[in-house]
Amino acid sequence: MIGPAVKSDQGWAGKAPDSKAWKGRRGRSRKAAAAEQDRAAGGPDRRWVDLDGGRKARASVELKLLPRTRRIRAYLRWSDRGRSPARYLGEVHHLTRAENLAEGWGFARAQNLLAEADSDSASWAKNAAVRAVMRANRSRDTGPELRMRSLLHRAGLRYRVNTRPIPALRRTADLVFTAARVAVFVDGCYWHGCPDHHRPSRQNSEFWLDKIAGNRARDQETNQALVEAGWRVVRIWEHEDPVDAAERVAGIVRGITGR
């Protein structure tokens, strides 16, 4: 069942945000709107909410601008027997609608407002047990990652989310501080082989061991390529305390920029 939402106390400073940060494209079709939500949520199977009586509904994230306070708020909305309930998720502060929608979905996941899909027929995972592991080990917008973003923004630091530090290099960092040339990666304990918390899959174990080893090798290649290009790479495990991680990142960025 849908539970209570958590409120964020962040806000926009100065002038109001540009409409591209929150407003949808005018005249778009329902299909285009649904595709936009699917991309932001990480797939159509990640947009379900539980209703009473064992029912489910597909939800969407709605962005609203509060003109007086210049704040953009994200809400989770769905349809239920002719009604359109909504839950407040929090405030978002990115420059584009796509990023703000993605953060809204991240808030919904962090607040446990979302349910599993009705069917797993489209999943590439071998069985229900493997699918459960994959769902439990998200690669982005985890709760600790969102909390760290919030703390950094509140500390006055600005960054880009899920961006390539070097456009020509197909490696995406979770946070990019362009002026300081700092790239931050929040590594999931499962996907990146955390020495403390990684638990290998018991089924098809050889495949997954090779997969994780490949991910770790790719991480090292990414680090080397960015360092050679003049970037500072910061890697944080998702199990690390968000407050400590944010302080660490802020110290590095401010140490470089002198602010």
What this model shows, in words?
The protein is an alpha+beta fold and 259 residues long. It folds into two domains: 19-110, no CATH class; 137-257, 3-Layer(aba) Sandwich (Endonuclease, Chain A), CATH 3.40.960.10. 34% of the residues lie in helices and 19% in strands. It has helices spanning 30-41, 97-110, 128-136, 143-154, 205-228, 242-257, and strands at residues 48-50, 56-58, 60-66, 71-77, 86-92, 160-163, 173-177, 182-187, 232-237. The strands form three sheets. It has a four-stranded mixed beta sheet with strand order 6-7-8-9, sandwiched between helices. A three-stranded antiparallel beta sheet has the order 3-4-5, with helices on one face. A hairpin with a 5-residue loop joins strand 1 and strand 2. Residues 1-47 are annotated as: Disordered.
- How many helices in DSSP terms? 6
* CATH superfamily placement of the largest domain: VSR Endonuclease
CATH architecture of the largest domain: 3-Layer(aba) Sandwich
Largest sheet: 4 strands, mixed
End-to-end C-alpha gap: 46 Å
Q: Look up the CATH topology of the largest domain.
A: Endonuclease, Chain A
Find the count of extended strands (DSSP E, 2+ residues). Answer: 9
Structural class label: alpha+beta
Q: Trace the largest sheet across and list its strands.
A: 6-7-8-9
- Poorly predicted residue ranges: 1-12, 118-126, 132-138
Order of helices and strands: HEEEEEHHHEEEHEH
What count of domains describes the coordinates?
A: 2
Radius of gyration: 19 Å
Name the CATH class of the largest domain. Alpha Beta
**Percent range for helical residues?**
25-40%
Estimated share of beta-strand residues: 15-25%
The coarse overall form would be: globular
* Average pLDDT, all residues: 81
